């Protein structure tokens, strides 16, 4: 910041729910970048695929409208998935089945986001998947979701790294699955390794945002910049809980400098092909809902959060309404089911 090297900032605007008073310097920072049209918003808790329209989602939109009037966002994004947990601040974002029902619900929520913030809107690709089939379908589903609002993708390259490791895919295989013409923003970050007990010998890469950026992710960035003709932002992410030591702070600074230099080396002076400006749209009077989907989401959340062992998770899933359904739990990778339970049980104590 002091060297004026940070050209834009991304603010996770819905994560300050427990903060009673924001410091004056923080508001000044947001205002300064907002006035230069270099402030972008990133949501965590909208839960765009919740089968039932919940009061928390309406409150989220009210909050977005208020801050969109206070600050000028160049665009606003949200995470893909639905939130587990008794409330959105105590839950994990997890995947949904790719069906006509979830497509309709996701489009409805994106329209409501765009109608509220009146700027380009987008979604971030997932790090987590239950199966290789989900990985292969994710990019096309994102494209279908975003088309009605002229929306864009945050291409999170550490999420790519997770998918590549967890499902034994190459970068070239992954990139072929995504509509890269829709990428307006790229994320890079670090994460952690988890050893599977369900599949001994297998490690799972998790997107925990608490470590330095792997060299492989920088390699992905070097390749991805030229593949995304509408790219405007590259963002380095890391949770504050991962920056508590001098070594971690130095590593974060070095990651930023490395990212910055890589962008300069790949500098393309041409304007983005697509600005993703909002198109005229008709907001549905009736919010799209599906009670069956919502009940299945509640059931899955309870199974993942309450199970005391992998075997307990598997028994509960097989006896649930998700069995032999669009969720296709019979094809889920055991290590990823185990990971989903760990994620849900961590997040039920609150987002960090």
From TrEMBL:
InterPro entries to which the protein is assigned, alphabetical: MbnB/TglH/ChrH, Xyl_isomerase-like_sf
Signal peptide range in chain numbering: none
Transmembrane segments: none
Protein origin, superkingdom: Bacteria
Gene3D superfamilies (alphabetical): Divalent-metal-dependent TIM barrel enzymes
Pfam families noted in UniProt: MbnB_TglH_ChrH
UniProt protein name: DUF692 family protein
Species of origin: Chitinophaga qingshengii
